[in-house]
Write a structure and sequence with these properties.
Helix 1 (about 5-10) runs antiparallel to helix 2. A hairpin with a 2-residue loop joins strand 1 and strand 2 (about 105-115). It is built from 9 helices and 12 strands. The two termini are about 40 Å apart. The chain has helices at about 5-10, 15-25, 45-55, 65, 75-90, 155-160, 170-180, 225, 255-265, and strands spanning about 90-100, 105-115, 120-125, 130-135, 140-145, 185-190, 195-200, 215-220, 235, 245-250, 270-280, 285-295. The protein is an alpha/beta fold.
């Protein structure tokens, strides 16, 4: 599917949890690597019909999709991934969120240990959903920071590849696996979808080499610049609706957008907005782009 086809497919789902799950199935990732896991390569051809059936008949929704979303986006994302593995792929989850410890110290956590029904292999899946903003440092280096600038794309990628995905190779993890009857080789996999946001005020070179060219993109700007923008089509997005494109039947409320900008100033917390346009044929307001508004102090000292 092209990006436009994926967007149209996602916007057809009106139940948020189903739309979010469809986004996990179809969206590009932020890491191109031999360990990357592509759900679309394993999903049955009729998986979209399954999602449509769930939406038409809420009683058939997997129980995990009916629960109130957690406040932390990462926890909600893990729940969606669990449904993807168990209910769409039909794979057995052997372990989930299992800590690996040594001498009372936590070395890491195994996100998912699953049996790949296509290959028969046991796989260790490390997952993350990420949103990174491109920033030019005082040393004229391009860094990709998260809204919380302690998170950085290069550091997260390095940790996924060189620490988290290798947990099953550690003796402490092998002892844990043996305790649940797992004595075979475990294949590591990484799944990291998300967005890169490019600064409005600067032109950056292309994304890092390990990021696929087809990655999802947005823009970011400072609060003072946002105050000069026409925000009549802006809608503040709150977790978990950072996942996937946004659409609504009501016209965007400019007062709500202004209030969200005021919170960026008063609380010093970044705010994500969807920029909507009205589609006359459906009378819906549909996301055409998204933009992060950042407080003046972001990303902080040392960037």
């Amino acid at each position: 599917m092209t990006k436009n086809e994926i967007t149209e497919t996602l916007l057809a789902f009106e139940v948020p949890a189903v739309r979010h799950l469809a986004w996990l199935c179809l969206s590009p990732q932020l890491l191109r690597h031999e360990l990357s896991f592509d759900p679309a390569a394993h999903l049955p051809p009729e998986f979209l019909e399954t999602l449509k059936r769930w939406e038409r008949n809420p009683d058939t929704l997997p129980a995990r999709l009916t629960e109130t979303p957690e406040r932390r986006l990462g926890h909600y994302f893990e729940r969606l991934y669990e449904v993807l593995l168990r209910d769409l792929l039909g794979w057995d989850i052997v372990l989930q969120n299992q800590q690996v410890q040594a001498e009372g110290r936590t070395l890491g956590e195994l996100d998912f240990l699953v049996r790949n029904r296509c290959s028969g292999q046991l796989e260790h899946h490390e997952i993350a959903i990420k949103f990174y903003l491109g920033f030019v440092t005082e040393a004229n280096q391009v860094r990709w920071y998260g809204p919380n600038a302690r998170d950085r794309l290069d550091l997260k990628t390095e940790r996924l590849l060189n620490h988290q995905s290798r947990l099953c190779q550690r003796p402490e993890a092998q002892g844990l696996l043996a305790s649940v009857g797992v004595c075979e080789t475990v294949t590591p996999r990484i799944f990291m979808p998300g967005y890169l946001f490019y600064p409005v005020a600067q032109t950056l070179p292309e994304a890092p080499a390990q990021v696929p060219r087809e990655h999802l993109k947005g823009h970011w700007m400072r609060l003072d610049q946002a105050r000069l923008e026409n925000i009549s089509g802006w809608v503040p997005l709150f977790k978990p609706d950072w996942i996937g494109p946004w659409a609504q039947s009501a016209a965007p409320d400019t007062a709500l957008a202004r209030a969200a900008l005021d919170r960026v100033q008063s609380d010093g917390i970044p705010q994500l907005f969807a920029v909507l346009n009205r589609r006359p044929e459906s009378d819906r307001w549909v996301e055409t782009s998204r933009v992060f508004i950042m407080p003046p102090q972001w990303p902080g000292a040392g960037a």
